[in-house]
Design goal:
The protein has helices spanning 24-37, 45-49, 56-64, 70-91, 102-111, 124-133, 157-166, 180-189, 218-223, and strands spanning 11-14, 21-22, 97-98, 115-119, 142-144, 173-177, 192-195. It is of the alpha/beta class. The chain folds into 2 domains: 11-22 and 96-223, Rossmann fold, CATH 3.40.50.1000; 24-91, Orthogonal Bundle (DNA polymerase, domain 1). A 5-stranded parallel beta sheet has the order 5-4-1-6-7, sandwiched between helices. A two-stranded antiparallel ribbon has the order 2-3. β4, α6 (124-133) and β5 form a beta-alpha-beta unit. The longest helix is centred in the middle third of the chain and has 22 residues, at 70-91. It starts with 10 loop residues before the first strand and ends with a helix. The model has no long low-confidence stretch (mean pLDDT 95).
Length: 226
């Protein structure tokens, strides 16, 4: 379902990985370097994409669980996570690209007077450099990462915190993301949610997301705000 226009929106909360930036190749490289350290075979990028969006621990544990039992995952996860952080630090943003019309979309939202927040489950130490490397950091009034608050998406706390920061009611805010994680957080927080069709969504079709419609790009989203 394509998204209908929304009126009375004064702010947008936008996800990072899979919504603004295609980071899958960075994750793929860092994970396979980690697996090489652990004498494990490499994974295809399609498998890696399924585990993006719920934080790095889920990414590491989820990919280990594709070939190991739960006990083995528990045994290996701490070592794997430490190695992954090291490798991801080395490649963060090096192979990432902006999805089409991200900067024009953010600019139109700004031109319309919207406040902008980036809410991601990526840790702060990786989010801030990535946003700067992609040239979009300055668009955002606030940025909340996976370690900024006691809870992260799909919990509504990050979005509720943005409402408080901006002094806005939930019906004055739209969230934009690529996954069910974003949808669940927005639904629980009480704001509208649009989905982009090109992201990761844990390997599931975007049409399965409980959202208020699909927007082809961030520019398309900006143009539907009246």
């Amino acid at each position: 379902m394509m998204a209908a226009a929304l009126s009375g929106i004064r702010a947008a909360i936008i996800d990072l990985d899979g919504t603004m930036v295609d980071t899958a190749l960075d994750f793929h490289i860092a994970l396979n370097r980690t697996r090489e350290d652990l004498a494990l075979p490499p994974l295809a990028i399609e498998i890696v994409r399924r585990y993006v969006g719920k934080g790095f621990r889920n990414l590491v544990r989820g990919t280990l669980a594709t070939e190991m039992d739960e006990h083995s995952v528990e045994q290996l996860a701490p070592q794997a996570f430490a190695a992954f952080l090291q490798h991801y630090t080395e490649v963060n943003g090096e192979h990432s690209t902006l999805f089409p019309d991200v900067i024009p979309g953010l600019q139109v939202m700004r031109d319309k007077g919207l406040k902008l927040a980036c809410v991601t489950n990526k840790q702060t130490e990786f989010t801030q450099p990535l946003l700067r490397k992609m040239g979009i950091h300055a668009f955002f009034d606030v940025i909340y990462c996976g370690d900024s608050l006691p809870k992260m998406k799909p919990d509504p706390l990050p979005m509720q915190t943005v409402f408080a920061d901006f002094g806005l009611a939930p019906n004055e805010v739209v969230a934009i993301g690529d996954s069910v994680n974003d949808s669940q957080a927005a639904r629980a927080a009480g704001c509208a949610i649009w989905s982009v069709p090109y992201g990761y969504n844990h390997g599931r079709p975007v049409q399965e997301i409980d959202s208020d419609g699909i927007v082809e790009t961030l520019l398309a989203a900006a143009n539907r705000l009246t």
